[in-house]
């Protein structure tokens, strides 16, 4: 695990900090610290324009290999980029799914033709993606996917029918990657395939889900004989589970350091308010703030340990604990925010009752231990896959 940075790395840090200061201004100034979890509905068109600005500065795909159009930066410099991006208040990335998940998956499993056709739209900030994994009966138990796909009579197109849920920004996406069952009668992780689906079709219905925060960045997505070309299958039929798991491994990559810097920004805001309203004089709140600070440091060191291994989509033991660790920590931070705010956390001045930043943080963090794999399931993953303990007994009817 590497904790320090070289002088060249620190020069790079100064470069990205300066670039962010110069570009996150003017028309983009209102985007600072906006568009993150719980606020993803904000400024979608402006954030798409910001993606194109990032592309012009060659700040998309910084960790991608050069043969795929990326910059091939070292892990150290990728960490610095994500940290400085968040430190400067860079907005939530509209292109995160494409850059962080689809791109590495195409690089690992896609054909050269698929890479040449689909990677440029991610790199230039013109194509946006959403994730078609979870279903009403297949959330943490992803292997229970029921969405089905079959080849048409010509063998040139897949026809997809089914429902996905909790699909972030599906209403803004150009493409969706869909885990679907392509082998009739198959069960569990067998018979699944990984398909790329263009969203601009009448056979796709996107229905927003209103959340506790009052926003609707999540959606249900319904497919009714939706078409995608046979060339949009990644790997072979039946490879879907392997590819889906690798993609989740890429999700726990270097961008986790940027996520933690966003957490740091939230903690800084809590500390600022605690000092302003006197909550910092409460010894119990001071202790909880100190514990939050220490917990965030532990998350950082575990991420650096996680990134010291191969970045091939395989989940090491360190990566398996990350979701459980950050979601528990962040959920506790939401509670801390409300306790620091005191009575002010429960009231708003007047209609239309726009939530404050910390009120939105608290409400959204109620979902942290559920989405992306519930904490109960994550504990099973750690026990069975990381520690080699016996599998949990399956209840049968």
UniProtKB/TrEMBL annotation:
Domain Acyl-CoA dehydrogenase/oxidase N-terminal intervals: 10-125
InterPro entries linked: Acyl-CoA_Oxase/DH_mid-dom (IPR006091), Acyl-CoA_Oxase/DH_mid-dom_sf (IPR046373), AcylCo_DH-like_C (IPR036250), AcylCo_DH/oxidase_C (IPR009075), AcylCoA_DH/ox_N (IPR013786), AcylCoA_DH/ox_N_sf (IPR037069), AcylCoA_DH/oxidase_NM_dom_sf (IPR009100), Mycobact_Acyl-CoA_DH (IPR052161)
Swiss-Prot/TrEMBL cofactor(s): FAD
Ribosomal protein among keywords: no
Family matches, as SUPFAM superfamilies: Acyl-CoA dehydrogenase C-terminal domain-like, Acyl-CoA dehydrogenase NM domain-like
Residues in Acyl-CoA dehydrogenase/oxidase C-terminal domain copies: 238-386
Keyword match Lipid biosynthesis: no
GO molecular function, one term: flavin adenine dinucleotide binding
Any one GO cellular component localisation term in the record: plasma membrane
Keywords assigned by UniProt, alphabetized: FAD, Flavoprotein, Oxidoreductase
Protein name: Acyl-CoA dehydrogenase
Organism field: Pseudomonas silesiensis
